[in-house]
Amino acid sequence: MFWSDVWPYLVGALILGGIGAVGWWLWRTDRLARGRDSLWRQEEAVKAGHRTLAEVDAMTGTEFEELVASLCRRDGCTDVRRVGGANDNGADVVGRLPDGRSMVIQCKRYAPTSTIASRELRDLLGAKVHFGADLAVFVTTTRFSRPSENFALQHGILAVHRDHLGLWNNGAPLLSLTEVNGRGQGDSRHRARWKQAYGK
């Protein structure tokens, strides 16, 4: 056999082997990239929608307002924007519910041992009038006092206390909380467990 007869086959085999190696390398790179992307998306989903209440407690007031705004967007609310800060006229987040009604939200990231007083809900009621909103929502990381809870119910304010915030954070739509508004802070046994957990 002469070299001139063999070399085309050897070159062809080398070319096919090279193409196969490059193809395998591209396939492997694609699989690794897809795996990393999938892992990143899972981590982002956990961060975005499944924060623990302990992580929420560690947020700044602004971060908490941003969390509430992102939960509203997740639930299909539109025109959602954070307006909290100096001269916010009693509103931290405004937007529209999925059914088109306007909403105004007051966010209070307090220690779990604190209690929301009635005056804070009165401020929110004023913000509802100021913004001409259809629904006022008060979101907090703690509890409402009995008078403040009663005030919220009397004036159609959706009072999202710590337990309801946990439900909302874990996937319950905001409007589903209207069905349990004014409830969920528990009986005396629940309050005893609350004091045991948070020290007050």
Write up what this structure looks like.
This protein has a five-stranded mixed sheet, sandwiched between helices. A two-stranded parallel ribbon has the order 4-6. The chain is 54% helix and 15% strand. The model has no long low-confidence stretch (mean pLDDT 85). A hairpin with a 5-residue loop joins strand 2 and strand 3 (102-108). It is of the alpha/beta class.
List the helices and strands and how they pair.
Elements: H1 3-49, H2 53-57, H3 61-74, E1 78-82, E2 93-96, E3 102-108, E4 115-116, H4 118-131, E5 135-140, E6 143-144, H5 146-154, E7 157-160, H6 162-169, H7 188-198
Parallel strand pairs: 3-5, 4-6, 5-7
Antiparallel strand pairs: 1-2, 2-3
State the helical fraction.
Answer: 40-55%
| Rg calculated over all Cα atoms | 27 Å
The helix count comes to 7
Spatial strand sequence of the major β-sheet: 1-2-3-5-7
Oligomer, anyone?
A: single chain
Provide mean pLDDT, rounded. Answer: 85
The count of DSSP E runs of length 2 or more, i.e. the number of strands, is 7
What structural class do helix, strand and pairing data support?
alpha/beta
* Shape designation: elongated
